[in-house]
Amino acid sequence: MAQFIGNIIVRGKIECLTGLHIGAGKDTAEIGGVDSPVVRDPHSRLPYIPGSSLKGKMRSMLEFATGKVGGGKVHTCNKADCAVCRPFGSSAADERKCGPTRLLVRDAYPDETTVGMWEKLNTDLLYAEMKSENFLDRITSAATPRFIERVVKGSRFNLEMIYGVYQVDGVNDLDFFTHVVTALRLLEDGALGGNGSRGYGQMRLKLADPVFLSGQDYREGSDAWKQVRQPLEDQAFKLGLDNFKLNRGDATCQAWDEVLKVPEGEVGKEGQG
Description:
The protein has 273 residues and is of the alpha+beta class. It has one domain (2-260). It is built from 7 helices and 8 strands. Strands 1, 2, 5, 6, 7 and 8 form a 6-stranded antiparallel β-sheet that branches. Strands 3-4 form a two-stranded antiparallel sheet. A hairpin with a 2-residue loop joins strand 5 (156-168) and strand 6. It is globular. It starts with a strand and ends in a 13-residue tail after the last helix.
């Protein structure tokens, strides 16, 4: 039986340190046009980062880091103590032994400063740049050009992730939040989107202090619940992944301890996958 305890709200900024390409696919070919466009919001035409792309890359890198990659398929074992399946979820077709998926990653849209920067770009593309590359025949040296659309360096996107905290068979979900942070660290030293081995997709995260909302906060519509719905100023995003952690003494962990009744010494202990 799974009991909902609350949600950890993580908000931040994703800053592109190099050009970013998350492809949208293309049905038609245009002479002199882009071969691989970026994904865009259909209403505003603004590029964005789909939550599925971000979560999928985090999961993939964590699978490799925990030795769970085999057969070229997404890892799914449904074990209650799995470092991947418990936070990131498992197939709906399989029996879920660890309860519902814990991690929800929202689509990340550009902030206002970034949109203003994009509007001033001196490029032929809307809110983006075109990167030209060549495939070279190793024998004849014949070049086949291709043109890839990229979000420009310096762009920032609004990040929001929700980590659900449940009690399932007496296992504490806080133990597994550390694996989400590990996945973010791996991603920051890897690449987001396509063509990462050729310099694309390097990014850096700046995070705000996490907020815990209990079931009671949702039932009562508390001040904490209302506060999370307000936009944050840029100075709130002050934490890098080197100092983003669950500290025993901070107010957030004290709130978790009170709701979860976690024994002393248990917060921050990593679950075993």
